[in-house]
Write a structure and sequence with these properties.
With 87 residues, the protein is mainly alpha-helical. It has two domains: 1-34; 35-87, no CATH class. The chain is built from four helices and no strands. The protein has helices spanning 2-31, 42-50, 55-68, 76-86.
Length: 87
């Protein structure tokens, strides 16, 4: 009797695993072209969207602002090193 329950339990677990893998694969396939970007200033982002901009336009605008930034280094590590030297 115990052996039968163990077999059913294993089949149940394998079934759940297969479903999770299929759903995860579909999700990955549909979103593989998207890049995760952290938006740190939600108020600025909300105002940008309220003016009629799109998320892609906002991200391009932020990247352009980052290119124009004259303070700090070219990498976060370099900026941290510069900050530590000032202290």
């Amino acid at each position: 009797m115990n052996n039968i329950n163990l077999k059913k339990y294993k089949k149940y677990l394998v079934g759940i695993l297969v479903v999770v893998l299929i759903v995860g694969g579909i999700y990955y396939y549909q979103n593989k072209g998207f890049e995760f970007t952290l938006i740190t200033n939600s108020e600025e982002y909300g105002e940008f969207l309220a003016r009629g901009g799109s998320e892609q336009e906002y991200l391009e605008w932020v990247k352009e602002l980052e290119k124009q930034d004259i303070y700090g280094g070219t990498t976060p590590e370099e900026t941290l090193d510069l900050y530590i030297k000032v202290l």
